[in-house]
Amino acid sequence: MTLCLSRSIAAVMLWAAITPAAGAATLAAKVEQWGLLGSWAVDCAVRPDRDKGALLTYEVRKDGRVMYRRNFGEVSDENEVVSATVNAEGLLNVMVYFPSLHQAREFGLLLAKDGSLRAIYNRSERGEYTIRDGKYVATGAPTPVQQRCD
């Protein structure tokens, strides 16, 4: 399974590298239509902090690329969204390439009817989960609901 997942991620990365701007526009349209674009946090009133919560922002650049910015206060990064699909249940499956980690991560997001966002899963390209079934693997605690901050 790990080999298959690694090959899939490699294929996605190659596809993302050679896809023309039209492909980026399709990705941008998909995440916009789903409702992902904008900034999200557990508590928008709290300044971003590693321990108190990050501000997560999804945006489309002028060149059409979809970017994922994480602001932890004193530390922040920007990473490219390389793919996004919506499954039959409405879960948005997003793959983001993190150059600093030298890996892609895939996560599933659920947008509730009230407009809140929740992470349902997060896994590495090796299939190692940090979030599974809406719970942190390490603690079993449910993932928090995020609100749109903009």
Task: Give keywords.
single chain, 150 residues, alpha+beta, 8-stranded antiparallel barrel, 41% strand, globular
The ordered string of helix (H) and strand (E) elements is HHEEEEEEEEEE
What fraction strand? 35-45%
| Backbone shape | globular
Q: Give the helix level as a range of percent.
A: 10-25%
Determine Rg (CA atoms, Å): 15 Å
Topology record:
Blueprint: H1 2-18, H2 21-34, E1 38-41, E2 55-60, E3 66-71, E4 76-86, E5 92-98, E6 103-111, E7 117-124, E8 129-132, E9 135-136, E10 145-148
Antiparallel strand pairs: 1-2, 1-10, 2-3, 3-4, 4-5, 5-6, 6-7, 7-8, 7-10, 8-9
Provide a descriptive summary of the structure in words.
- 21% of the residues lie in helices and 41% in strands.
- The chain is α+β, with helices and mostly antiparallel strands and 150 residues long.
- The longest helix has 17 residues, at 2-18.
In brief:
This protein is α+β, with helices and mostly antiparallel strands and 150 residues long. The protein has two helices and ten strands.
